[in-house]
Amino acid sequence: MSEPIVWLTIFVLSVFVGIEVISKVSSTLHTPLMSGANAIHGVILLGAIIVTGSVESTTGLVVGLIAIVLATINMVGGFVVTDRMLQMFVRRPKPQPQESAK
Amino acid sequence: MTPTWAQLAYLVAAVCFILSLKGLSSPKTARNGNLIGAVGAVLACGTIFFARDLDHLLPILIAIAVGTVVGVVGARRVQMTQMPQLVALFNGVGGGAAALVALLELRHLVALSGVGAAPEFDLAATAFTIVIGGVSFSGSMVTFAKLQELMTSRPVTFPGLPILFGGALLACFALSVVMVLDASIWSGIVLGVLGLALGVLLVLPVGGADVPIVISLLNAFTGLTVAAGGYVLGNTVLLVAGTLVGASGTLLTKLMAAAMGRSLFNTLFGALKGGSTLGAGEISDRPVRSAGPQDVAILLGYAHRVIIVPGYGLAVAQAQHTLRELVDVLGEKGIDVDYAIHPVAGRLPGHMNVLLAEAQVPYEQLKEMDEINGEFKDADVVLVVGANDVVNPAARTTPSAPIYGMPILNADEAEQIIFMKRSMRPGFAGIENELLFDPKTTLLFGDAKDTMGKLLTAVKSI
Predict the structure, then answer these.
(1) What is the ipTM of this complex?
(2) Domain residues of chain A, as ranges?
(3) Burial, B124: exposed, middle or buried (Cβ in 10 Å; 0-12, 13-18, 19+)?
């Protein structure tokens, strides 16, 4: 078992990384970025699988399976819909380089 | 105990998520960024099947299959215009899943506490996940209902709301303390219910135009619940992924609020201070000047500089392809045409760029607000299609308006303003637009697609 302080360290460092990586985003990409981040937290699916894999009661199993379905919708749907949004940015005729407006 | 190779796989997944967010913040790398994120998520979830002996393997796989089908179909079928509510929905179910996971883990902790071994930190983190997961779920459902227009998009308040909200918040704190001291599954369930109530109370008073900010905030909340869940389960990838989303989501919320000239506090609690119901959306019968497609075509055809202000109404009517054709025709006539994109045109920041990119509008013609606001005074004609709040001068002049302080496009500085509108109905923020009654303004009524088609024919024949 890890010490809480180790977890706190990971937490604090992740906060800084999270802020740093998106600090230069242009407002054009706010929506896809939000949607992508939304898909990433769908990884709670992993947590749902872990708890469901060790429940004993039927009630627990039902609750766990509901959690798995919901988390999968979040994760899979989130990535697919973000990709659909971003396709729009890429599939553009190529007379000029894509990134011109600042 | 998690084997070392699985820990390493989790580390790789966590790095994928960081690279994903990094990629998503630049147009060139955005699509790859999203793919990297998906790879990380699949890697993380795949690992667990080999790292642990799981019971109920078959039902778990079936549940994943069901979720995948629902997610893919939902994401593929949805109209581009309905994207914002879909994101809200996905976020909500994620929060709900986190809360359910925490409830199940609580059962486990309760069993441990019988022998005096349940650590306080774990219980506190579990309580946090249950409450905030509940807030995220119910809050997202309310934003979904607002965006889908299942309920009014205007702020909903009632006299006791602040007291009720404060009371529910205090009760959550108190019950969390009780839970840490003496864990029981019932305290967890009650906490979940309180969380659901808090979410509803939090989002109800938020006005339609501010909904995007709230979606982003709830997204950050869900991230934090996932992080707390990761702590409880002793899983690093959940902790890192959740924290990344929580932190970047909070920053993104601030950036969005800044783009709309709102503070986060005002967004959430502005309506509670009262006085934001100006205009209340009543339809005034003051005189307006309206014209037909022919007249408007002449205005456009003989202009030198035209700026187009597209709004959500354009996309709802699916008129963006016809609009692009119109702009092409005007361009061939040597007229200088640009699109002025307000940061929150559409329903979310960047939403309009997506909708226009779908119609293959060249990126170069899309001008952001700061870039183009100085050019309106030189424009002969501004064509406002399906937009309203983003050109409403009330944002500058009327302190009591809900959109007061939001930066707007200076369409009123142009020589001529043409509004293409379906009716005199006010915009999403529910307030009347003075600009409609301006002597420089001409209204072109009708369904945007239909009228745009007629306008296109008329311009071609000049």
Answers:
(1) 0.87
(2) 29-90
(3) middle
Q: Which residue of B has its CA nearest to A46?
A: B45
Active-site choice (B122, B210, B338, B389): B389
Show residues of chain A in contact with B75, CB under 8 Å.
76-78, 80-81, 84
Set of chain B residues whose Cβ sits within 8 Å of the Cβ of A30? 252, 255-256, 259, 343, 348-350
Nearest chain B Cα distance for residue A58, angstroms: 11
Tell whether B456 lies on the interface with A, counting CB pairs under 8 A.
no
pLDDT at B104 over 80: yes
- Residue B235 to residue B320: CA distance in whole angstroms: 46
Tell me whether residues A45 and B362 touch, CB distance under 8 A.
Answer: no
What does chain A come to in residues? Answer: 102
CB pair distance less than 8 Å for B349 and A30: yes
3-class DSSP state of B386: coil
B39 contacts in chain A (CB < 8 Å): none
Residue pLDDT, tens place only, B35-79: 999 999 999 999 999 998 898 999 999 999 999 999 999 999 988
Q: What mean pLDDT comes out for the span B214-235?
A: 94
B412 catalytic? Reply is no
Which tens digits make up the pLDDT trace of B408-443? 899 889 988 998 888 777 666 667 788 888 888 888
pLDDT (tens digit per residue) in A5-42: 899 999 999 999 999 998 888 777 888 899 999 999 99
Integer CA distances (angstroms), B307 to B172, B303, B367, B445, in order = 52, 10, 10, 19
**Mean pLDDT score, B119-137:** 93
The CATH classification number of B293-460 equals 3.40.50.1220
pLDDT over threshold 60, residue B390: yes
- Look at residue B283 and tell me whether its pLDDT is greater than 60: no
Residues in chain B within 8 Å Cβ distance of A15: 243, 246-247
Burial of B141-166, coded b for 16+ CB within 10 Å and e otherwise, reads bbbbbbbeeeeebbbbbeeeeeeebe
Q: How many residues does chain B have?
A: 462
- Cα–Cα distance measured from residue A93 to residue B336, given in angstroms and rounded to the nearest whole number: 20
